């Protein structure tokens, strides 16, 4: 009798799980389809779907051994005998618009996957509470083993090409909104891949900006353009600013600039009683004072050869143009060629 009860309970549990997966597939699929229609102008943009069982098997049920990055839901996996990245979510705390953000990540990823400088989307799974992305395998941009100066400039140039593509390849300008190291990956050939489109927004056709709710400004503070933070206005320059800070952090690492500015109150600002630390302001000060060598990443500094000082200066000057500290702010399509000459 107990054996029969156990079988009955297992069957009910299995049926309940199957029903829940079906509901998730339908609900998630509805939101994803709406986003695809909105961003792709109704054009067909097929995305392969994987089952929950395939994802669970690929990651060994999201085993800690396959968990790539602490505090983030990114896992190594194997699907159809090929290594893949499984992106389960990008937030530790779910919010009311989490589903919409994940669907936006899937939608934009599907639109740019044919480009070599974006992390390729292989498909998604809609059967979990929140959709899961399946992407080509690549490694997160390294910090512990910093590449040499030439490699850093190459990576930056490739990311500039990717962002330029977002800004120019579609009828409506796509603004990434979250350009920062955690959204950059490197494949086995050292090619930089941009990812993480959860916050991406479209500028209406024929317009140069779009306004979002200033109360819901999101992203990593140091990478956020001042105008966006204060007014919620999004333009191409929102990405250009973030890219400028990325250039700075590739060469110096935030911690080095912070360590060397602790006693300089002129570089610390308070907004609404909260200390606001701006890396780009500090980098500008060091460049102006000719103290660049003090803030360079040691591994970058040690790898430098003849003429590299001028290359570093050229990259930093471009970064300060991007953040509005020097001269006119360039467009992203100008930043890539500028790096080619660095």
UniProtKB/TrEMBL annotation:
GO biological process: cell surface receptor signaling pathway; response to temperature stimulus
Highest taxon in the source lineage: Eukaryota
Lineage: Eukaryota, Viridiplantae, Streptophyta, Embryophyta, Tracheophyta
Keyword ATP-binding assigned: yes
Coiled-coil intervals: 1-28
The protein, known as: Protein kinase domain-containing protein
GO molecular function: ATP binding; protein serine/threonine kinase activity
Assigned GO CC terms: plasma membrane
Keywords recorded for this protein, A-Z: ATP-binding, Coiled coil, Nucleotide-binding
UniProt domain Protein kinase: residue ranges: 33-342
């Amino acid at each position: 009798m107990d054996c029969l009860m156990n079988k009955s309970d297992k069957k009910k549990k299995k049926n309940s799980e199957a029903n829940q997966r079906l509901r998730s597939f339908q609900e998630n699929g509805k939101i994803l389809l709406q986003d695809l229609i909105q961003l792709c102008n109704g054009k067909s943009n097929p995305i392969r779907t994987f089952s929950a069982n395939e994802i669970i098997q690929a990651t060994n049920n999201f085993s800690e051994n396959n968990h790539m990055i602490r505090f983030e839901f990114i896992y190594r996996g194997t699907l159809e005998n090929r290594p893949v990245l499984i992106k389960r979510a990008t937030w530790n705390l779910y919010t009311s618009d989490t589903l919409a953000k994940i669907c936006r990540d899937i939608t934009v990823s599907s639109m740019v996957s044919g480009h070599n400088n974006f992390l390729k989307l292989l498909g998604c799974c809609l059967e979990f509470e929140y959709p899961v992305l399946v992407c080509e395998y690549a490694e997160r941009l390294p910090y512990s083993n910093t590449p040499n100066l030439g490699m850093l400039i190459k990576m930056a140039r490739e990311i500039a090409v990717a962002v330029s593509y977002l800004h120019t390849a579609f009828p409506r300008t796509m603004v990434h909104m979250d350009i920062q190291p955690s959204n950059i990956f490197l494949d086995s050939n050292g090619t930089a891949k941009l990812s993480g489109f959860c916050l991406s927004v479209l500028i209406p056709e024929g317009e140069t900006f779009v306004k979002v709710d200033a109360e819901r400004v999101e992203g990593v503070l140091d990478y956020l353009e001042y105008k966006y933070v204060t007014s919620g206005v999004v333009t191409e320059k929102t990405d250009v600013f973030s890219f400028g800070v990325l250039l700075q952090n590739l060469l110096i690492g935030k911690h080095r600039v912070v360590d060397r500015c602790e006693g300089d109150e002129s570089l610390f600002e308070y907004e609404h009683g909260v200390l606001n630390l701006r890396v780009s302001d500090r980098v500008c000060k060091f460049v102006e004072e000719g103290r660049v060598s003090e803030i360079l990443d040691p591994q970058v500094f040690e790898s430098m050869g003849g003429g590299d000082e001028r290359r570093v200066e050229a990259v930093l000057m471009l970064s300060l143009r991007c953040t509005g500290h020097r001269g006119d702010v360039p467009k992203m399509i100008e930043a890539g060629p500028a790096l080619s000459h660095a």
